[in-house]
């Protein structure tokens, strides 16, 4: 954490030469020149860094925050006191001083009276919404199956609105806003869906504007894997990590990257469509209309087709958990298919590692159901494909097989923007 020290709470004197990072890339201005920060922007940047430190460290006193930031306690107090006044933070009861003496510490943490946040996960077959606290506790949630994504769009939108409305009705206070993670391509600048391959009726729909009008709240829209990454960054295995990648597997594939403390987004939210990177030139025809996409060899649809060819029981229901169980029971063909599936998942991860070398991969979705056996097989294949080099071992972490991380990450998109947290 790097906070400027000054006589004023904002510490504007030295920070004006430190450009903020929002993870979205910086537009070119005057062929690479970057504007200086105003004192108000410095204040919001410092506030975001203090909140980021609390997410990373847990309850922490003013004195400890000042020590970690290399500033005086007055600077920290100037940043946190407005957050306490606004009931975003609360100072807990004093903790007894250590045997060496000193003033008892009063750790800061997120207030139970703070306004909550609404997170929404929109996938081709269902919408899932929650109301969550700032420290990542889900207070209420609702999930509803969606109408056919190839039919009229309005019944789909009304179902989404119903799910969000039912969830908001359970909130104890008006939420800060609504964050939506979409299982498809999005335009983050416009707040609209670009395309959802499995639900084409949603293509080009201005979802953020629609929900904003209905509920009178700010709405932030982003790609589902980026929502997963934000969930891991604030509440999961990515907490405190400066560089990692998230990979999601299931009916579709996707991913997101976190570099040097920032979530990576392409222009208008492009990127993250890892399932449509090429792994087999002139390979199988993909749903996107191209051939050889990673999506064609490492999704559940591929796995179930291959399970049917191997004459495995109930092939149309096979997922990673069932396949690992079949392999453990030594059903003919199960272990071989499990290894092929692991290798196919590993191909795309190896390409990502060769390109940008995140070294830490947090896996979500179907492969997590395969437990240690599948995770180990994927890791072994990746390491066999990627030449060893300086920079540390590649680490694989099992994330969330369900929706919790994505829901919290979608909610985190709103908080990151409104409280200007540096994701």
Would you kindly provide a written description of the structure presented here, covering whatever features stand out?
Residues 1-30 are annotated as: Disordered. It holds the Pfam family ROK. The chain is an alpha/beta fold and 423 residues long. It is built from 13 helices and 14 strands. It has a five-stranded mixed sheet with strand order 5-4-3-6-9. A five-stranded mixed sheet has the order 12-11-10-13-14, sandwiched between helices. Strands 1-2 form a two-stranded antiparallel sheet. The protein is globular. Residues 4-32 have low confidence and may be disordered.
What is this structure, in a nutshell?
The protein has helices at residues 12-15, 39-57, 62-69, 73-85, 153-168, 207-215, 224-235, 300-309, 320-328, 334-356, 366-369, 371-385, 404-418, and strands spanning 89-91, 108-110, 117-122, 126-132, 138-145, 178-182, 185-187, 192-195, 219-223, 244-249, 254-259, 262-263, 360-365, 395-398.
Strand order of the largest sheet: 5-4-3-6-9
Query: What is the H-and-E element order?
Result: HHHHEEEEEHEEEHEHEEEHHHEHHEH
Helix and strand content put the structural class at alpha/beta
Indicate the percent of residues in helices.
Answer: 25-40%
CATH class of the largest domain: Alpha Beta
């Amino acid at each position: 954490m790097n906070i400027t020290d000054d006589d004023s709470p904002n510490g504007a004197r030295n920070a004006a030469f430190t450009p903020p990072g929002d993870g979205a890339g910086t537009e070119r201005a005057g062929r690479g020149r970057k504007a200086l920060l105003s004192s108000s922007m410095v204040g919001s940047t410092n506030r975001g860094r203090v909140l980021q430190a609390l997410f990373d460290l847990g309850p922490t006193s003013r004195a400890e925050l000042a020590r970690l930031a290399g500033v005086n306690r007055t600077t920290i107090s100037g940043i946190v006191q407005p957050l306490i006044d606004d009931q975003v933070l609360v100072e807990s009861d004093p903790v007894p001083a250590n045997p060496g003496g000193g003033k008892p510490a009063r750790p800061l943490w997120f207030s139970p009276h703070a306004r909550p946040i609404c997170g929404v996960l929109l996938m081709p077959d269902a919408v899932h919404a929650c109301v969550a606290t700032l420290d990542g506790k889900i207070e209420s949630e609702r999930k509803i199956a969606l109408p056919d994504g190839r039919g009229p769009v309005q019944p789909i939108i009304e179902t989404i609105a119903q799910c969000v409305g039912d969830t908001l009705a359970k909130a104890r206070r008006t939420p800060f806003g609504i964050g939506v993670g979409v299982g498809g391509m999005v335009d983050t600048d416009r707040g609209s869906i670009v395309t959802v391959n499995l639900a084409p009726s949603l293509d080009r729909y201005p979802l953020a504007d629609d929900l904003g009008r209905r509920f009178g709240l700010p709405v932030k829209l982003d790609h589902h894997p980026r929502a997963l990454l934000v969930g891991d960054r604030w509440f999961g295995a990515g907490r405190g990590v400066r560089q990692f990648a998230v990979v999601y597997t299931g009916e579709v594939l996707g991913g997101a990257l976190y570099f040097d403390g920032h979530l990576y987004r392409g222009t208008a939210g492009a990127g993250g469509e890892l399932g449509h990177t090429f792994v087999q030139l002139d390979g199988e025809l993909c749903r996107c209309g191209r051939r050889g996409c990673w999506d064609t060899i490492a999704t559940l649809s591929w796995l179930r087709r291959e399970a049917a060819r191997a004459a495995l029981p109930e092939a149309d229901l096979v997922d990673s958990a069932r396949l690992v169980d079949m392999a453990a029971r030594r059903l003919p063909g199960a272990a071989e298919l499990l290894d092929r599936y692991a290798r196919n998942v590993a191909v795309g991860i190896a390409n990502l590692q060769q390109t940008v070398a995140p070294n830490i991969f947090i896996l979500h979705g179907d492969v997590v159901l395969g437990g240690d056996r599948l995770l180990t097989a994927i890791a072994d294949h990746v390491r066999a494909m990627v030449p060893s080099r300086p920079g540390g071992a590649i680490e694989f972490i099992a994330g969330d097989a369900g929706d919790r991380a994505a829901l919290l990450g979608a909610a985190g998109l709103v908080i990151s923007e409104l409280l200007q947290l540096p994701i």
